[in-house]
Amino acid sequence: MTRVKRLGRACAGRIAALCLGLCIAGCATVAPRTPYTLADASAASPMAGHPVRMWARGDTVRYDQVRDELVAQRRRVGLPPPSTILALSGGSDKGAFSAGLLNAWTRRGDRPQFDVVTGVSTGALIAPFAFLGSSEDATLTQIYTHVSQADIFRKRGILGALGQAGVVDTTPLQTLIARYITPAFLDRIAAEHRRGRRLFVVTTNLDAQRGVVWDMGAIATDPSPDRARLFARVLLASSSIPGAFSPVLIDATAGGRHFSEMHVDGGAVGGFFAVPRTILSENASVVLAPDTRIYVLYNGRLNPTFKVVRKRILSVAGGALATLLGEIDRNAIDELRDFARGAKAHLSICSIEDDLPSDEKPVFDTVRMRQLYRFGEQAATIPHSCLTP
């Protein structure tokens, strides 16, 4: 059995891959990096003079600016404050669930044009297409029902991974992303941004040990010739499972100094992002339209599952990490429910709970992804669908 198959067998997706990466991380070496300080990190910008991101937690001043700019922009074009939020979670190949659900939701005829779309990990890859709406349904279907492992990564093997920062080579994923992130695609994102809609993607800055929320519409509107490269690298970083995929270095400047930040999967700080944690935990003020609807598409199970764990290092480590990250996500859902109650917002959560296709198959197995896609379609069409608040 190949190591990548064992990755999928351990617990599929980000958890198992992380476990595998940790096992050989001590052997990896990377080229020296330019040192920089916490002050540099806080002041750094990847696009000169154009703020395109904020810390995922604690950056209250910047969140207030983003909120006020958004509300003012929508008011100028005659729109009310945002009233629909779509949050797409991580979940590796289980992103096929969200792709199927979104497509079936379009066919239902009541899928809204979301005012705010957020994505983490595989959800980050889906988010730009979900943001542009049903015109991109066919693209999502193509990506999540026709790709295979070969379209995402190349196996390095143990010897090939030595001296690298990731077990697998993600050149195929970079090629896949670049195929769709064209200047014309970015122009469409930018046009919607100017209309008062927002697209956010989360990465994890390993140097700062903090989540970063990227305003992808702001990147798309920047006149810099580097906008496509930065947009694509943020998507790649958000979906780069630590240890399994190499981290993504993003160039930044602070005080005239140039350096590279190390970013990995946004799932390292949380499985999804709907509302800033500062707002959730501190009850900070937030402007929401009456009857705001928040939809969370969770690409996995939210409820704990029972499985007898094999007495092996990867199985034990994978089980422990799956428990930890699952509990973090369940707590985040509880916080979001409390927030929605207090804000008089409607919260809908769609997740994969029953008859999940076998995790025994390798990750990014095309047949399994098509099963997951059909699960998403069914979730949108059954009576009393999860999309009903």
TrEMBL record:
Q: Which residues form a coiled coil?
A: none
What is the residue range of the signal peptide feature? 1-30
Q: Where is the PNPLA domain positioned along the sequence?
A: 86-278
Q: Which residues form the active site?
A: S121, D265
Q: Which domain of life is it from?
A: Bacteria
Question: Motif DGA/G: where?
Answer: 265-267
Identify the residue span(s) of motif GXSXG: 119-123
* Pfam families assigned: Patatin
Q: Which InterPro entries match?
A: Acyl_Trfase/lysoPLipase, NTE, PNPLA_dom
The protein's name: Patatin-like phospholipase family protein
